[in-house]
Amino acid sequence: MWNMKEDVHQILINNMNDYAGASVVIAVGLAAVLVMIFQWYPKGRKGSEIPGKLGLPFLGETFAFLAAVNSTRGCYDFVRLRRLRYGKWFKTRILGKTHVYVPSVEGAKTVFANDFVMFNKRYLKSMGDMVGKNSLLCVPKEIHGRMRHLLADPFSMNSVSKFVPKFDRELSERLKRLENSGKSFRVLEFSMKAAFDGICDMLISITDASTLDQLEHDITCVTDAMLSFPLMIPGTGYYRGMKARERLIDTFKAKITKRRNGEEVSDDFLQSMLQRDSYPPNEKLDDEEIVDNLLTLIIAGQSTTAAAIMWCVKFLDENKQAQDKLREEQLQILRNKPAGALLKYDDLMSMSYGSKVVKETLRMSNVLLWYPRVALDNCTIEGKFRLLNQPKNVALFLLSDCSLLWITCLALDMFVPAGYEIKKGWNVNIDATQIHYDPNTYKDPMRFNPSRFDEMQKPYSYIPFGLGPRTCLGINMAKATMLVFLHRLTSGYTWTVDDEDLSLERKAHIPRLRSGCPITLTRLDDTSITNS
Ligand code: HEM
To answer: Alphabetically, which GO biological process terms does the record hold (predicted)?
Structure first.
């Protein structure tokens, strides 16, 4: 008997088999097409090649770079000239290493956000030898996190608030002595000494003048040796630097012993480290770590802060309107305090225009011109994320059953710019200077205009202290030092710059005026101070 139900069932089964067969054929076909595209695609459409001249093997453009370093236009001139020739992105070769200067907010974001993962710091041997293998600057990621956490506490707002009145007292006395002498003095020298003494006081409570002089002399030998050839032979800069480092480490260790013996107690950074003596090893720094980082902090903090102060004075001198506005704010703060009272951290909080002056100074001066990293793998920067550049992603797409998704992703991947190609081992320098001078972010970028900071900045477009896991540890201290200086200078004095020469110091990695910005102070008359 004809069984209609069974026949229909049989027909359905046959058709389903046909459909399944057809689906498999389509899927395999699509997979084959995709694999073929994938085979062709990464070779044909890698990231764009970065223009630039690599020159001779090893030497590359080393001589041109050294010429810029030795010139009074400063080492950034090397970068500036290549940008004019090749455009924003360029590559070069210096001492055997390929360098790329990352000029954009998007590029900076990629590098900062992948610090320690895709990029890392790499120091010259002499630089690493001078600061020591336990320095925060040199340790690997696993140690860096723990160390940074332990070092950060003494730089908190709370700690900086103890530093403010101490530094204010010292600074006021120094300025008074210069006022009384009536002589011209170099702001750079002045701020180097003031910053050095301030940092040493905060870290290890050394205030004795002759010890400070000896320490500063040794720190200068160490910093000078950072770019020297690592040759441990008497007479070389490297040798002098290493010997100076030994003396500094001995001084720090002697301090540690005194503190442990109870011969000396102080409320400072070192004491806060030693208070952890009884803690488990992962919750404290050992002595070698403490001494290397004391040295690191002094080196990282002194010349950066001093240069920033010098540029502040120079920019304010060239922009009288900004100077007057700042003076008015600072006089108001002075009038609201009892005569002769020292500044407190809270006073800094009410320096709204002063903070903008500090920000604008750091934007324009670019104390650290670029932030060097090394690419740990081949990658692209500034391009959009590419989905199909990894075999595992392709496999996922094949397994997924949504052809529309495949096609969309493939199209996106093909037509969205793939970015600039970086090879493993290349030096990738985040060019803070170019980012801070970008007219698309900062209107009229060469004009000193603190009020531009009335508005919020785009993320990653303002980076004078870096960003990410390696952000400057001394931000609070640096800003506080600058604000205290600005307060005492503008609320107590007017000044004239005695040498207008704009040329820069030779062989300096931090841009500083060759003249050191000499100024002469004139005391503000009492009526300006008391007028409200
Ligand atoms: C105006 C003054 C300063 C400027 C412009 C400045 C700028 C910077 C920048 C840009 C970085 C990050 C560099 C990079 O990512 O490669 C940095 C790191 C650092 N800064 Fe500062 N700095 C200043 C003052 C200070 C002070 C006063 C101290 C401490 C006393 C300090 C301690 C450090 C340390 C320890 C690091 C390394 C952080 C790490 O690798 O985790 N800096 N600084």
So the answer is: brassinosteroid biosynthetic process; brassinosteroid homeostasis; sterol metabolic process
Which of 153, 303, 472, 477 has most ligand 1 atoms within 8 Å of its beta carbon, as the pocket-test mutant? 472
d(CA 517, CA 318): 12
Question: Cα separation of 437 and 218, whole Å?
Answer: 36
Domain positions in the chain: 141-363+483-531
468 lines ligand 1 (CB under 6 A): no
Residue carrying the six token digits 């902090």:
297
- 372: which strand partners? 429
Whether this model's ipTM surpasses 0.90 comes out as yes
138 is in an annotated binding site: no
Ligand 1 nearest atom to the CA of residue 307, by list position: 1
Element containing residue 231 per DSSP (H, E): none
> How many angstroms separate the alpha carbon of residue 6 from the centre of ligand 1?
82
How far is the C-alpha of 61 from the C-alpha of 93, rounded, in Å? 6
Pick the CATH number of 141-363+483-531 from 1.10.630.10, 3.90.1150.10, 3.40.605.10, 3.40.50.1100: 1.10.630.10
Q: What is the pTM of this model?
A: 0.87
- Determine whether the shortest distance from the Cβ of 293 to ligand 1 is under 6 A: no
Ligand 1 atom closest to the CA of 367, numbered from 1: 5
Residue from 153, 159, 37 nearest 407 by CA: 37
Secondary structure class of 515 (helix, strand, coil): coil
The sign of the CA dihedral 240, 245, 247, 248 is: positive
The Cα–Cα gap between 422 and 52 comes to 13
Q: Decide: 137 in ligand 1 pocket, CB within 6 A.
A: yes
Report helix angle 4-44 to 391-399, nearest 10. 160
Q: Which residues of 152-184 are buried (b: 16+ CB within 10 A; e: fewer)?
A: eebbeeebbeebbbbbbebbbebbeebeeeeee
Low-confidence stretches of the chain (pLDDT < 50) are: 1-2, 4, 8, 11-12, 16, 40-45, 385
Asked if residue 473 lies in contact with residue 301, where contact means CB atoms within 8 angstroms, the answer is no
468 Cα to the center of ligand 1, angstroms: 12
Amino acid occupying residue 363: R
Report the alpha-carbon distance of residue 97 to residue 109 in Å, rounded: 23
Q: Which of 473, 482, 486, 512 to mutate to test the pocket of ligand 1 (most atoms within 8 A of CB)?
A: 473
Tell me the best of 148, 199, 465, 509 to mutate to test the pocket of ligand 1, counting ligand atoms within 8 Å of each CB and taking the most.
465
102-154 pLDDT, tens digit per residue, is: 999 999 999 999 999 999 998 889 999 999 999 999 999 999 999 999 999 88
